[in-house]
Amino acid sequence: MSSSKRIVVTGASRGLGRVMVESFVALGHVVSGCARATMVMQQLHERFGDPHDFQTVDVSDERQVQRWARQVLDRVGPPDLLLNNAAMINQKSPLWRVPTDEFSRLVDVNVKGVFHVIHHFLPAMIERGSGVVVNFSSGWGRSTATDVAPYCATKWAIEGLTQALAEELPAGLAAVPLNPGIINTEMLASCFADDAAAYPSPEEWARRAVPFLLALGPDDNGRPLTVPD
Ligand SMILES: NC(=O)c1ccc[n+]([C@@H]2O[C@H](COP(=O)([O-])OP(=O)(O)OC[C@H]3O[C@@H](n4cnc5c(N)ncnc54)[C@H](OP(=O)(O)O)[C@@H]3O)[C@@H](O)[C@H]2O)c1
Question: Which of 110, 130, 131, 222 is 20 to 30 A removed from 216 (C-alpha atoms)?
């Protein structure tokens, strides 16, 4: 490997975030991850040790994100790759039957959570003059389907937020919305039930996604990307 990158990953406890952590560490990169599952964060911390770090953080809580960002920036400095991966999906339902607190929670995690992470990590990346922000979108950030309107709303928001951010960034940095594809994770199973098993595992996905993510740079700024098949 030519050079070790500093990588920040939200939603590191399972699914795509977890396999990205495993792959990046195996390749010699320095990973700082977060999720709400305290036990899993402790296990990752014990397994990988310094210079990697895993903290219990709910991205919807700005103060928790602020504290985490300060720790990461003090310890390893600004990330080369900031992966806003954490998200949730609604229980399948027509929009008019979605409970209002569930709709609010999706916005708090999927949209405001991404903003909190950007708000507390990006200034240090801008000061250094380099780094790539990847905001995990979805096929449902560019198309729609029945029974997932709240999720679609948040992922379309991510596409817009990221495109606007890309226009604001100084040279040397990039922000991209990323559709990861369709992968057999807990999130997919909650939506597709048994049909989720027909899709690639997170490990299979990581073999394509990880080199793709590591190759991103300033030329990608503002490009809506999809992990190649
Ligand atoms: N799987 C797919 O087919 C697919 C397709 C399109 C887009 N995506 C996107 O890809 C990303 C990863 O999805 P996935 O399938 O891996 O989902 P997943 O299996 O449900 O994992 C979601 C991760 O996000 C974390 N998370 C959820 N709420 C959080 C919060 N408030 N604060 C911090 N972490 C939180 C979860 O950890 P805790 O519960 O421990 O907090 C978990 O680690 C998401 O942005 C998703 O929308 C996935």
Answer: 110
